[in-house]
Amino acid sequence: MRIETLAVHAGHDVDPTTAAVTPPIHMSTTFAREPDGSYRAGYLYSRYSNPNRAALEQCLAQLEGGTLAAAFSSGSAATMTLLHALGPLAHVIVPDDAYFGTIKLARDVFGPWGLDLSIVDMTDLAAVEKAVQSNTRLIWVETPSNPLLRVIDIAGVVDIAHRADAFCAVDNTWGTPVLQRPLGRGADIVMHSTTKYLGGHSDILGGALIARDDSELFQRVLSIQMSGGAVPSPFECWLTMRGIRTMPLRVSAQSASAMALAQFLEAHPRVEAVHYPGLPSHPAHEIACRQMTRFGGMLAVQVGADRQESIAIASRLKLFTQATSLGGTESLIENRASVEGPTTRAPENLLRVSVGLEHIEDLKEDFDAALRR
Ligand SMILES: *Cc1c(COP(=O)(O)O)cnc(C)c1O
Description:
Elements: H1 3-9, H2 51-64, E1 68-72, H3 75-86, E2 91-95, H4 100-109, E3 116-120, H5 125-131, E4 136-142, H6 154-163, E5 167-171, H7 176-179, E6 189-193, E7 207-211, H8 216-228, H9 234-266, E8 271-275, H10 285-291, E9 298-303, H11 307-316, E10 321-322, E11 332-335, H12 336-340, E12 350-354, H13 360-372
The chain binds pyridoxal-5'-phosphate.
Residues 74-76, 99, 101-102, 142, 146, 171, 173-174, 193, 195-196, 205, 207 line the site of pyridoxal-5'-phosphate.
């Protein structure tokens, strides 16, 4: 089945007790035992499992073409659980342009616990190969990356990981299963911040890990999810499922608008640089064409002489709210260097844009007015 159909049907059944078409929300934390001690539907306590979470996990597994999924209370909780599951003293390779919270977790939270970390430029596969050690257990990929929209060759990194007997995990938050399916390219695990495009309305925090195959590692992930309980509530699972139903349509529209906005900005005399994988000027445009169906709703633009000037331009925009996060229906913009602090790799005048569902002509006119004043 195609992604639009899966988004509407995966994990959705007509409720067997009431025939409700829209699924009920099961708030109960506990489930009654049968006289013989068994549980009628297999649920016993909601930290372990819950009907709404089970439906979401089934849906996520199908969307990514995986066999198992685990839902978490945030994308970061999902990342943390995978790093935790590796055990101490594992070596992990992450890209230098990964979401800064991912690097912060690996370095500051798991570093003291014994995690051995290498941060490399993954657009250079030779550098990835060189970073491999005898204790390498995981190579983490994020593509397109945050905030520079770098594109990493998923199949190329998978090959290096598997030759080293390591797992390859891909943060597919920006790609979404609409634009790229990393498990189909050989990756072992996909991670999502469902806070972004899957939820899609800037009103829930959530995360997920999806496995291509069952493994000892993923069983440890499930065990930490169950024992630690960093899980989404039934209502959040329900809202995520509701968001997913329109996700393919939203992401298609956002990709089309982002492409048009990127082209408009690239041709604008007041713009220094545009970072968008859909532009032929992007250094990895060819890889993006190979592994993505479209190029996503995120772009970055360098404008103004410095941080102050770029923020002044962002402040003049009327339709782009200056706020962090992404993937919602409203357009957002932020000066990334000021969010990430002194360790940032973002150029000082870089504005990261999450394109919403407004009409593209309104977005272009808004940018044009803000740039010209
Ligand atoms: C937001 C984000 C995360 C972290 O997810 P949270 O839900 O905020 O914890 C991780 N990776 C990427 C690419 C993100 O955009």
